[in-house]
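Q: Hi! First time doing this. I have a protein sequence and I read that you can turn it into a structure. Is that right? Here it is:
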Amino acid sequence: MSTADFDAARERAGYYGQQRPELVANLPRPLGRVLDLGCGEGGTAAALRAAGATWISGVELHPSAAAAASEVQDETLVGRIEDVLDQLRGPFDTILLYDVLEHLPDPVSVLVALQGQAVPGTRMQISVPNARHWSLFRDLVARGTFGYKDSGHRDVTHLRWFTRADLESLLCETGWTPEPHSHPALHGRHARLHRLTRGGLAEFTFWQWVVLAHRNGDA
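A: Yes, that's right. Below is the predicted 3D structure, encoded as structure tokens:
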């Protein structure tokens, strides 16, 4: 499958339209000026506006998704995050990196550069797939495969993998201080298991990690 066909298939599947209301709900208020990196079609914009965002800027690599995002965001830049950060109308009070870091060849440089788009008190919310999820052990041990897919936990376009410790260490190394971690809403049997174990199996049952961080030195 060509790159164009692959991207078209993702568009049809709604890959670029994710809204992530469960993450927006956990953002500290006020949101102020928001930067959504890897914004896709701007799916988070409605929830951000409802939560009081006064401005939304987005960066998206795929032109067709960015075109859709430009209809609902105040500013949308097309390209690699590394190439367009200095073109944004910052600074920002809230920065979003939803399922982005795992796609970057050099997340360190991006996180360092984001310091220049932040003000005192800026909060950055990051989500990444959990590299310790039980299903990965199952596939490696029982099925003999890493199990790449076209999307989801083991998206074929992922370049990196993070445990919670890896993510928090990366943030500390790049000038950000992780706050007590949160996670997307748990449903059904996973929620029951989480309650029964009092979170003791979280490292293996959480599908992804969501961490809120602020700049080192900011309260």
